Automatic annotation (TrEMBL):
This is Dephospho-CoA kinase. One of its GO terms (biological process) is coenzyme A biosynthetic process. Pfam families: CoaE. It comes from Orenia metallireducens. The lineage of its organism: Bacteria, Bacillati, Bacillota, Clostridia, Halanaerobiales. Belongs to the CoaE family. PROSITE patterns: DPCK. Pathway: Cofactor biosynthesis; coenzyme A biosynthesis; CoA from (R)-pantothenate: step 5/5. One of its GO terms (cellular component) is cytoplasm. It catalyses: 3'-dephospho-CoA + ATP = ADP + CoA + H(+).
Length: 201
């Protein structure tokens, strides 16, 4: 079974991914794949630098993510250019990893923050959404990033709302409570899916 795990900024998806790994899940992390492809002289690095110029580079040759993030956050056309440049390559690499790891593992969890936005739903047997109410999301983002309310709202509003993502999810992992409650919820979902998978062996 291939599971797509997604969420939103400050929803707790990384924590869920960590708990799943502790339970023995095999995780493919889309962000890690993207970061590795963005290392100096790698394919994505070359394409992004070609698209946005050498002014986005730090002195050591790595891409200044903060600077690039600032460019695309304030310019929707620049964001589309970045997405068009990077997404097909990242998706192809995720597919490659899924193909490789699915041969040896009954359940594969693929952690993709923009799973719905980049139209990867059909890659998976199930989509799991880590969900939080917007007011909780705002508070957690303000605390995590040490930013004010307006900046938190702007960041959250730049993404697809979690309430909208719910429409695409097969399972909802609710993270409105404590970390302990979240861990219990992850264990419950993992056990359920493991039992289902065992039945088909």
């Amino acid at each position: 079974m291939k599971v797509g795990l997604t969420g939103g900024i400050a929803s707790g998806k990384s924590t869920v991914s960590k708990y799943l790994k502790e339970l023995g899940a095999v995780i493919i992390d889309a962000d890690k794949i993207a970061h590795s492809l963005m290392e100096p002289k790698k394919i994505l690095w070359k394409r992004v630098v070609k698209e946005f110029g050498k002014e986005i580079l730090l002195s050591n040759g790595t891409i200044d993510r903060k600077k690039l993030g600032g460019i695309i956050f304030n310019d929707s056309k620049a964001k589309k250019r970045l997405d068009k440049t990077t997404h097909p390559i990242i998706i192809a690499k995720i597919e490659e990893e899924m193909e490789r790891l699915s041969k040896e593992n009954d359940i594969l969890i693929v952690d993709v923050p923009l799973l719905i936005e980049i139209d990867m739903i059909d890659f998976f047997d199930e989509v799991w959404l880590v969900y939080v109410d917007k007011d909780v999301q705002i508070k957690r983002l303000m605390t995590r990033d040490q930013i004010d309310y307006q900046k938190a709202i702007a960041k959250i509003n730049s993404q697809m709302p979690l309430i909208k993502k719910k429409e695409y999810a097969d399972r909802i992992i609710n993270n409105n409570g404590t970390e302990e409650e979240l861990k219990f919820e992850v264990i419950r979902v993992w056990q359920k899916i493991s039992d289902i998978e065992s039945e088909f062996k």
